[in-house]
Amino acid sequence: MVGMKKLCFCLIPILLLCSCSRAAQITEVNGFYFDTYVNITLYEDNVSVKTELPKLLSSLELIYSPTLPESELYRLNHALIRKPESEELRKTLEEAMYYEVLSGGALNASIGSVSALWDFHTDSPAVPDSASVNAALKQIKKGADYLSDRELSLDLGCIAKGAISFRVRDYLLDQGVSSAIIDLGGNVVVIGGKPDGRPFTVGIQDPLAKDKVLRTVQVKDCCVVTSGTYERCFEADGKLYHHILDPQTGYPAESGLSSVTILCADPVMADALSTACMVLGKEEGLALIETIDDCEALFIDGDMNMYPSSGFPPQ
Q1: Which of 23, 243, 260, 300 is least surrounded, with the fewest CB atoms within 10 Å of its CB?
Q2: What's the pTM?
Q3: Residues 288-299 as b or e (16 or more Cβ within 10 Å = b)
Q4: What is the side-by-side order of every strand in the sheet holding 239-242?
Q5: Which residue from 183, 34, 156 is spatially nearest to 95, judged by alpha carbons?
């Protein structure tokens, strides 16, 4: 029997260290959505956003939740509908297919049959047996059409928070918001800068210490997304198992990395690439980042060595 020694469940891998003028009015919307804690801060008093934004978050949950029986993704995975019903989900599935190709398969949203074996959300997670993993691996398809192949079991954990952040940012911009922070469990999107014009300071967490910031970046109108081995994980027989699965093996990626932080303007790109690069590892991941315009990354290995891309902001 596999002995469980430790369970760690860290929902916020990026800590925000932003201080704004005391005179600035603040509107906050927060709550538990998409299986994570969501915190959205506007540096203005906006009654309409405070009322309408929770409705938007709830509507998006009814699209992307993998566990709510009434959600679109759940119904798609359980063959209750034959194709995506919303333009929202259709677009996200197309983007997932794009990043599968871009990453050479390091990201594959048809991994749902495998990820279902790894329940990192329970109090007593277990390592699935190899026979089950091997059987589930056969259901993953390379280059599949996520829009029409109903034999697929989709897991959008690699891209959904990015798509949701994109929608929330667009909504806030449409409302005329000029200074805000959107934090979906560590997927951070900032609109503008602080009310006084200075950039926001975003702290990148030390993978070995939940409350310690390893370094910071100064950003305006940017996404800062981190994927790490410490977010959802457990230890069994002295080995750490984390939630970032390798589509090739069906087991947690063993790339030698503890975390990857992506900086770019597109929340979907940031979310997808942070996951893909954790699977690819430092060398292949950095090589991929260097081919993408206006996208930077910071790779942290198991020994806490940091490897920034060529344009990553200096400390």
Answers
A1: 23
A2: 0.89
A3: bbeebeebbbbb
A4: 4-9, 232-236, 239-242
A5: 156
Angle (CA) 137-13-199 rounded to 5° is: 130
User: β-strands 306-308, 14-16: how paired?
Assistant: unpaired
58-96, pLDDT tens digit by residue?
999 999 999 999 999 999 999 999 999 999 999 999 999
> What domains lie within the chain, and their CATH numbers?
4-308 (3.10.520.10)
- Determine the Cα–Cα distance for residues 247 and 253; give it in Å rounded to an integer: 9
What amino acid is encoded at 29 in this protein?
A: V
Q: Which of 36, 42, 49 is nearest to 9 (CA)?
A: 36
Q: b/e per residue, 88-109, with b = 16+ CB within 10 A?
A: bbeebbebbbebbebbebbbbb
Report d(CA 222, CA 218) in Å as an integer. 10
Q: For the segment 225-261, what is each residue's pLDDT rounded down to a tens digit?
A: 999 887 776 676 777 767 889 999 999 989 999 999 9
